[in-house]
């Protein structure tokens, strides 16, 4: 079973390396599309049912321990959405690799649960 897990680890490493080499830029965080109310009492966004404004694209990330949000215009979306998605993909791959590595070490040392 250890050889199967080691093969998975090698596959994960290869995928991570390939993803890194294919990526020009990575950015943290996520993209959210928001529909908003403007606050004008007579606007259709305050009707029942409301017709909200948008979608507006918002980038949210953590920097130096604090949440930062930025509204992105169309040009900025073109520049930054792919690097944000690539960053998310790389973090997911790295997290999966860490899980396999931890499991491998635990099994090799006889620590923790050995069912998986």
Order of secondary-structure elements? HEEEH
SS content category: alpha+beta
- Which strand order does the major sheet show? 1-2-3
Q: What average pLDDT do the residues reach?
A: 88
Largest sheet: 3 strands, antiparallel
* Unreliable stretches covering 5 or more consecutive residues: none
Please report the distance between the alpha carbons of the first and last residues.
10 Å
Give the C-alpha Rg. 22 Å
Helix percent band? 40-55%
In total, the number of strands is: 3
β-strand amount: 15-25%
Note the overall shape.
elongated
Structural domains: how many: 1
Question: Count the helices. How many?
Answer: 2
Topology, please?
Elements: H1 2-22, E1 30-36, E2 53-63, E3 66-72, H2 74-109
Describe the structure.
It is a single chain. The protein has one domain (2-109). It is of the alpha+beta class and 116 residues long. Helix 1 packs antiparallel against helix 2. The model has no long low-confidence stretch (mean pLDDT 88). It has helices at 2-22, 74-109, and strands at 30-36, 53-63, 66-72. A hairpin with a 2-residue loop joins strand 2 (53-63) and strand 3 (66-72). It has a three-stranded antiparallel sheet with strand order 1-2-3, covered by helices on one side.
The gist of it:
The protein is of the alpha+beta class and 116 residues long.
Keywords summarizing the entry:
116 residues; alpha+beta; three-stranded antiparallel sheet; 2 helices
